[in-house]
Amino acid sequence: MTARTRRTRLMAAGAALAASTLLVTACSSSSSGSGASGSAAPGSSSVKAASADPSLAALVPAGVKSSGKLVVAADASYAPNEFKDEKGNIVGMDVDLANAIAQKLGLTADVQNADFTSIIPGISSNKYQLGMSSFTDTKEREQTVDMVTYFTAGSAGAVKKGNPDKIDLKDLCGKKVAVQTGTTQADEIKDVRNPECVKAGKPTIPNDGDKFTLQTDVTGALVAGRDQVMLADSPVVDYAIKQTNGQLEKIGDTYDSAPYGIVVAKGTDLTKAVQGAVQSLIADGTYKSILDKWGVDAGAIATSEVNAAKS
Question: Which tops the pLDDT comparison, 33 or 168?
C-alpha cells in the first residue's frame, strides 16, 4: 500500500488556498533546499528539452501522432509531483516528465487538471492518452490499464511540529487522521489499520480517516489542528513539511515503498512508446535532471517496466 492510489497533491505565500505551495496560514514560498545559503527552491531550475527519438515516435498510434500531442491528466493538488503555481499553471515533477516523454515521441504534452478518481476512467474512454498523477502501480489497476513505472515512493506521516499529541505512526487507533480521497492511504486505513484496531480491541480511526478531495485540504486540516496526523506519499509529505515553514514534522519512517506508474490504455503500442521514452530519459540524464529539480531524486529508478506491481 503506497502512493496515491489516490493521489493526492500547494499553495503560495499569503494566498488562501492559492495553488502553488501549500495552503496554510503563515505559509510562504521559501527556499526548501538543504539549508545552504543561496540554495534554490525545488522547481526553480530549468530542464533542457529532450531530443526526439524517431524509433520511439514510430510506435505512437496514428491517431495520436496526427494530433501532434499527448493529452495527459493530472490532479494538480499534489506538490511537488503535480500542482498549480501562483499563476495557475500546472507544474511539478510529473508535468516535467510528461513534457519530456512527449518530446521523445515527437509530440507536445497537453497536461490537463482532472479529479484523481476520474483519470483512469478517462484513459479507458480515450479522453486522455496518459495519466500522470502519482499513481501507485497495483495489480488491481493493471486489470484495466497499463502502468509504466517511472518512480518509487512510499507512504509517510506528518504531525504538527513537536508532535503535541504524541502520535505513534505504528498505532493510529482512535486518532484523527487526514487523507486524500481515493488514495492508497485511505484504503490502508479502511482495509488494514482499522481492522487491526478492532482485532486489538482498540477504538478505530474515526470515519476511516477524514477524507478530502484535495491534498492541500489534507495538509490544511493538520495545520489547523482539525486532525492530528496526515498520511500521504513520501515526497508529498516531505514537500509539505518544507512549504509550511516548520509547522509540520515527519514521524516514523517511510513504509510500503512501491513504484509509481504512468497510466496508459491497456494493450496499445503507446504503452511501448511511453516505456521506451522513460528509459531513454533515464539513459540520457534528462530524468535525473527533472528529479533533481524537484528535490525527489531519492525516488529514482534505473529501469522502467510495464505492469510490474507486486500486489
Answer: 168
